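Shipment paperwork, digital attachment
Item: protein structure file
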Amino acid sequence: MKGENKKMKYSIYIDNLSKKYGKLTALNDITLGIEKGEFFGLIGPNGAGKTTLIMLVLGIIKPSKGVIKVNGVNPISEFSKISKKIGVILDYHALYDELSPLENLELYSQITYGFKNTNKIKELLSFVDLWERKDDRIREFSKGMKQRVAIAGAIICNPSILIMDEPLNGLDPESHKMITDLLIEVNKERQMTIFLTSHNLHDVERLCSKVAIIKNGYIIKHDYVSNLKKAHSKKIFLINLLEKNSQVKTEQKIRKNEYLKKMYWKDNNNFIIELKDKVYLNSFIQELLNKQIHINEIKEVNNTLEDVYLEIIQNEVG
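Attachment content:
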């Protein structure tokens, strides 16, 4: 009974879940709980298992072993019980380009309610600020406008869970801000559980309260964003090099430095260092210069989720 009560607080509950394709293990003994009303982010490299996990949660594929519960039921054997309680937004929109936003939502409404719920449709198109464009063709819309219609379509059934796979890719800054603001409102005002995957860790940090980091089919970290940042909070510095350098050659010159505790690359011109003590900074810089590593800029930075993620991915075994 105690275990069942624990499960009840989760919108999505996963226990010892694995998925194999022949000899390939896509997911390996994953245990994860996403609480009701939580804004959750799943992050990891390409091929880590993110899409596979989403397909399992949606009941599209079967696990090789383990337990999945979505709103307390099995998404495969009891799909009919949850199909109208989950909204889905993918990187590509599932809209009919030759129809208008109004007609698209009327179609979704027929599927959900069995009739055209005109009040709900007007409410949602107004919510995403597209009521004035309700009769225009989807093909005339920008990607950001299409994504706003997709959000309206995804929540027309009043789902308790919204699953989004890279929903903010390729948006112009205005659309990006509007959609992130909409998602925050959906989560807070409608108490909707949101499951997000994204490679944009700035978005994840802004939107999500908790994240899981997945690598090679394993969950290697799962915690509140604030806890992860605190646990990895160090006196760290960003070093911007004057010119592009070979990462391998630069690391060979730096890694054995007596003052260095950790380092990892952001790109070919920038890397993060953590020193054993802040007092060693000047000595460390001088040694770089002695080894012909020319520095354009160095600055102390507060770590971000991206910094934490890169450190974990590059320095921990997954």
